[in-house]
Amino acid sequence: MKPPPFDYVRPTSVDDALASLARFGDDARLLAGGQSLLAMMNARLSRPKTLIDINRIAGLDAIRVDGERLCIGAMTRHSDVMASELVGRHCPLMAEAYHYVAHIPIRNRGTLGGNVCHADPASEMPAVLLAGGATLVAASTRGKRELSAANFFVGQLTTALAPDEMLIEIRIPLAPPAQGWAFEETSNRRGDFAIAAVAATLSMDGGRCTSAAIALAGVEERACRWTAVESALVGSSVDEATAAEAIGRGLGGLRPTGSVHADVDYKLDLVGTLTRQALARARARAGKR
Ligand SMILES: Cc1cc2nc3c(=O)[nH]c(=O)nc-3n(C[C@H](O)[C@H](O)[C@H](O)COP(=O)(O)OP(=O)(O)OC[C@H]3O[C@@H](n4cnc5c(N)ncnc54)[C@H](O)[C@@H]3O)c2cc1C
């Protein structure tokens, strides 16, 4: 399959890219790694009149620590994020989750920014950003704004970005040294999108949970936090029985999407199992770093 015809521009600065976005608006799409966009165009699910290729813009692929936050440029390739020592140290949840994302050639080309802007509900990174309390920096000719991950992911393949906005950077609070973490996923084959995935972090003090974050991918129409279970865990020891009870009660509040690979009942069962596993591993890691 070949994509429908399109015009092509290749800006070399963020300002030029934003000017192109302002000019072409919803008729244009930014081209990052192309790993999702070109497949969508080939299948005629997306028909942009103009592609704005942002691969030649310098400076959008840095990974740095700024104060209390880990900052990752939108054009950083998956493989560079995965290999980053800073990411391993300050967001080990992301480093672990990357082992489930696609395959080496796709990770070499695809970008973290493109991944989150594509906003596939079964993608791992939106769940990681939600669990990590990340913010996303969007720019347009009108200025910059910073959105929480909770406000960024609006629905299936839909984000809160306006047609003239470009994602510039992803900012994640540094993981506290004593925080435990775990990512669990089931997919049809290694490297496929998740049938269901769970990203979890836990902080413990004196054997009691002081904070918990649980985010789900592949379950609802967008990646989501599972706040009912989080709040049930705070103050508890997060032992097997408490976790199972909190999860059991929380399942009724989920609205899973069914598919040919997993109907709703199977998905709920899977989410319960994956969350129990993630919490057990996060609990075992808490206080160990
Ligand atoms: C076979 C295969 C398996 C895969 N498996 C997985 C998987 O298991 N898990 C997973 O998460 N992903 C998976 N992917 C998708 C992969 O992670 C893509 O790299 C990613 O979804 C899109 O990133 P990209 O840089 O290629 O973006 P592109 O395809 O270039 O763009 C995607 C969308 O985001 C927009 N966009 C890109 N950058 C920006 C920006 N800076 N600001 C605003 N909008 C922007 C584009 O206009 C487009 O609409 C898979 C892909 C393939 C082909």
- Unreliable runs: none
Helix and strand composition category: alpha+beta
Which fold name corresponds to the CATH topology of the largest domain? Answer: Uridine Diphospho-n-acetylenolpyruvylglucosamine Reductase, domain 3
Order of helices and strands: EHEHEEEHHHHHHEEHEEEEEEEHHH
- Ligand names: flavin-adenine dinucleotide
Task: Please state roughly what percent of the residues sit in beta strands, choosing from under 5%, 5-15%, 15-25%, 25-35%, 35-45% or over 45%.
Answer: 25-35%
How many distinct beta strands?
14
What does this structure look like?
The chain is an alpha+beta fold. The protein has three domains: 7-53, Uridine Diphospho-n-acetylenolpyruvylglucosamine Reductase, domain 2 (2-Layer Sandwich); 63-173, Uridine Diphospho-n-acetylenolpyruvylglucosamine Reductase, domain 3, CATH 3.30.465.10; 180-285, Enolase-like, domain 1, CATH 3.30.390.50. It has helices at 14-24, 37-42, 78-83, 85-90, 92-97, 104-109, 112-118, 124-131, 149-152, 227-233, 240-251, 264-285; strands spanning 7-9, 28-31, 50-53, 63-66, 69-73, 135-140, 143-148, 153-155, 158-159, 166-173, 180-186, 196-205, 208-217, 224-225. The strands form four sheets. The chain has a five-stranded antiparallel beta sheet with strand order 4-5-10-6-7. A four-stranded antiparallel beta sheet has the order 11-12-13-14. The protein has a three-stranded parallel beta sheet with strand order 1-3-2, covered by helices on one side. It is globular. The model has no long low-confidence stretch (mean pLDDT 96). The protein binds flavin-adenine dinucleotide. Flavin-adenine dinucleotide binds next to β2, α2, α7, α8 and β10.
